[in-house]
Amino acid sequence: MNNRRSFLQKLGLLSAGVAFAPTLLTSCDSSNQNTTTTSTAEGSDTSTATTGDTGLSDIGIQLYTLRELLPTDVKGVIGKVAQAGYQDVETYGYSVDKGYWGLQPTAFKQLLTDNNLLSTSGHYEFGQYMKDGNTDIVKRYIEAGNIVGHKYITVPYLGEDLRNSADAYKNIAEKVNKAAELCKDAGLKLAYHNHDFEFKQYGDTTGYDILLKETDPGLVSFEADLFWMEKAGRKPVDLFNQHKGRFVMWHVKDMDKNSPDLNTEIGSGSIDYKAIFAQANSSGVDRIFVEQENFAAGIDPFQSIKQSRDYVKNTLMA
Q1: What pLDDT shows up at residue 3?
Q2: CA diameter of the chain
Q3: Is 268 exposed, middle or buried (0-12, 13-18, 19+ CB in 10 A)?
Q4: What is the pLDDT of residue 54?
Q5: Range of 120's domain?
Q6: Strand stretches in the chain, DSSP E
Q7: How far apart are CA 312 and CA 318, in angstroms?
Q8: Virtual CA dihedral for 132, 138, 140, 145, nearest 10 degrees?
Q9: What confidence score (pLDDT) does residue 9 get?
Q10: How confident is the model at residue 318, as a pLDDT?
Q11: Ranges of the chain whose pLDDT falls below 50
Q12: CA atoms of 299 and 28, how far apart (whole Å)
């Protein structure tokens, strides 16, 4: 899992350009409203997914899952994501100079439209903003996000130097609130995505507790990375019940039964996703994104993501 952290740390060191993560095991809206668009690409559904009691509809994928392939074939990869049955994509790695893998926001939006896809959330680098408080970069993210059709601008990861004490987390919360005000003014929302380190204890509290307490519920939402919550020894359902309505997005990725540091296809691992999805209403979840940070040797990444998508749709969302 460290390569995701390394990737994001590299991203924070670059003022322009897309940083690329090293290999793990193998290479693997039309508006801001929650409008459901259904792909008609070969191999995907021809009707909107229904979700019974969960209230969910579209199934998304965090494009970091396909980071080994995107930089050299963004159009082909996006097309295959649609063919695998996904309806929503969450971006990462945006660069003011190079956009999304060489496509500026307008061109990337057109690519999504051509494939009947939405992008309701994007992960953007917030490290420098946390250090200097300069909101110029946040405004650029908002501008790009509105063009692409995001609903959420999401803080994906912060370096260890920014989160090494309770006071540091209070500073993060303050800056997140400020950025969230800018997002609100532009018709967007800001969200915070967790790893496991936010659950480190600082006296009688944790970094995550501080973020939940110190951020304005009317401005700041949370993207629950369910794998990392479980890895930290926390039960997502408990957090949903304690903070109802704040976890508007989920990252759904499974834990390999034999190697808990690794991911596997949804439904093949050790996380009890049936129990988690049964509590979707208390979470307040609006969007879900499948993510897989590594693939088993020899597996076709597109077959893997289709397997995960089909399990989510046919088992968890049935």
Answers
A1: 47
A2: 54
A3: middle
A4: 53
A5: 2-316
A6: 59-62, 88-91, 118-123, 152-155, 189-193, 201-202, 205-206, 220-225, 247-252, 254-255, 263-264, 287-290
A7: 8
A8: 160
A9: 42
A10: 86
A11: 1-53
A12: 8
Q: What integer pLDDT is reported at residue 57 of this predicted model? A: 78
**CATH code, domain with 19:** 3.20.20.150
Dig out the tokens for 38 from the structure.
């259904």
* 3-class DSSP assignment, residue 316: helix
Pair of tokens at residue 309: 């998508």
Provide the token pair at 151.
């609903």
Degrees (nearest 5) of the Cα angle 107, 111, 114? 135
**Residue 23 DSSP code:** P
Other C-beta atoms within 10 Å of 23: how many?
12
Return the H-helix or E-strand segment holding 147: helix 136-148
| pTM metric for this prediction | 0.84
Q: How many domains does the chain have?
A: 1
Instruction: State which amino acid sits at residue 200.
Output: K
